[in-house]
Amino acid sequence: MVGMDVTEANFNQAVIERSREVPVVVDFWAEWCGPCRQLGPALERAVAARAPRVELAKIDTDANQRLAQAFRIQGIPAVKAFRDGAIVSEFTGALPPPQIEAFLDALLPEPPLPAIDPEDEDGLRAALAADPARADAAVALARRLIARGELDEATAVLEAAADSFTVGGLRARITLTRALEAADPTVPPLGPAFSALDEGDVAHAIDLLLMALADGGAHRDEIRRVIVGALDELGPDSELARSSRRRLASALY
């Protein structure tokens, strides 16, 4: 049988402490309860299929009435899922197997995404084919497309990507690049700044973008978004990002 019989004596160790290492699903049941006999085997099978990523504990409410009172069990079967020492999800009654499986799957951590190589365009496209909202692949591919001037495809790639400051910065760059291509006289000369970004010289690019901000006119917010996107990619621990944010704040306010 899958599932440990838990009592008041070992509840803290078997459920609370153990849930700090792996999700623990607790089935409150009783021998006389018909729906409990219906739910129990289905719950055990579903947990067994996900072992060892989740564990099952079974508590006989008749034999452990203080536990039942402590968790305010008013109807059984009652199922409570513990993670990191606290209840994170629960249900009452005999759910059908598909709902049991969905309940358990929601407790499990997402599997790590496979690593991507930003220089491997075929790999980036394959990653996006599997998950169009995958932002890291979308950003890497869009950046390559923008550098080549393939703005329509870059726009499509970013359309499905999860929003972030980095994604917003690339979208703003596309807008500004289109304006430059259309010879819009209100756009400052951003070509050198964008070239610096493509070459990985972020410090020089930010210098040029901050200077362009003063003459940005109606495009100031788009230039700001390009800067913020570049700083976001540097990460919170970057001294360049911290100093550049101060300079950006001074330029804006």
Q: How would you explain this protein's 3D organization?
A:
It is a single chain. With 253 residues, this protein is α/β, with parallel strands linked by helices. It is 54% helix and 11% strand. The chain is built from twelve helices and five strands. The chain has helices at residues 11-17, 34-50, 65-70, 97-105, 121-130, 135-147, 151-159, 165-181, 191-198, 202-213, 220-234, 239-252, and strands at 4-5, 24-29, 55-60, 78-83, 86-92. It has a five-stranded mixed sheet, sandwiched between helices. Helix 2 packs across helix 4, helix 5 packs across helix 6 (135-147) and helix 10 packs antiparallel against helix 11 (220-234). The longest helix is centred in the first third of the chain and has 17 residues, at 34-50. It is elongated, with a radius of gyration of 27 Å.
Task: Provide keyphrases for this structure.
elongated, 12 helices, 253 residues, Glutaredoxin, five-stranded mixed beta sheet, alpha/beta
Gist?
The protein is of the alpha/beta class. The protein has twelve helices and five strands.
- Taken as a percent bin, the fraction of beta residues is 5-15%
The ordered string of helix (H) and strand (E) elements is EHEHEHEEHHHHHHHHH
Q: How many separate domains?
A: 2
Could you report the average pLDDT, rounded to the nearest whole number? 92
Poorly predicted runs are none
- Biggest β-sheet strands, sense, barrel: 5 strands, mixed
Form type: elongated
Give, in spatial order, the strands making up the sheet with the most strands: 1-3-2-4-5
Number of helices: 12
Supply Rg: 27 Å
* Estimated structural class: alpha/beta
